[in-house]
Amino acid sequence: MKGREHTNTILMKTGEELVSQRYVLPAAAVIETMKNANVVRLQTHVPPLPGQTEESTAELVVGQGKIHSCCIVTKSGAPLFMHAEALKVLEQLGDLEWSIYQAPTDIAGAIRRKGEEIPRRMVPCLSLAQEQVLSRREKQVFALVDGKRSIETIAHILHLESSAAQEILQKLREVYAID
User: Fold this and answer.
1) What is the pTM of this model?
2) Residue 72 above 60 pLDDT?
3) Residue 136: what are its φ and ψ, rounded to 5°?
4) 3-state SS assignment for residue 169
5) Do strands 79-82 and 95-102 pair parallel, antiparallel, or not at all (unpaired)?
């Protein structure tokens, strides 16, 4: 039955992550299937998109009832689409072969901590367009976002009120720099 295949694969070590299963499903179905599980990282190859000459890779981090991140990147790692825009592209592609990996412990641990929000970067560095719209203080906050520091810690380091740090983090979310 096309689009509903489930293939168990041989477990293989890839760095510190363990590949356990592969699913051939549309993005919406794989997200719905996995979002109530523990935090996992889903990855798939994306066929060349309009304006692109080669395949790209999509990665989703889902679990504990929500989507934590979604991005589509080139083979070299440059971001093409982030967050909702990436989800929309993936939903339009139909069936894709998804590999499931354990979420890295730093991501899973940060997501699981209760009472403290731990912001995470969606991009390793700011693009020129992002740099042009962000203030010096907003760039300083971005520099401190490492997936381990809480909002309170970032505010303390920069001598900011927690509410001011929250506002800056919201702006960083709006420009797709953090999740």
Assistant:
1) 0.54
2) yes
3) -60, -45
4) helix
5) unpaired
| Nearest CA among 83, 57, 53, 50 for reference residue 72 | 57
β-pairing, 56-63 vs 79-82, is: unpaired
Q: What is the pLDDT of residues 123-170, one digit of tens each?
A: 788 888 788 888 999 999 988 988 888 888 899 889 999 889 989 998
Please tell me whether residue 32 adopts helix, strand or coil conformation: helix
pLDDT digits (tens, 9 = 90+) for 9-20: 333 334 435 455
* Structure tokens belonging to residue 173: 């979310």
The token pair that represents 168 in the structure block: 């800056």
Q: How far apart are CA 5 and CA 46, in angstroms?
A: 18
Find the helix or strand (DSSP H, E) in which 11 lies: strand 5-14
8 Å CB contact between 75 and 83: no
The Cβ of residue 86 has, within 10 Å, a number of other Cβ atoms equal to 24
The H or E element that residue 6 is part of is strand 5-14
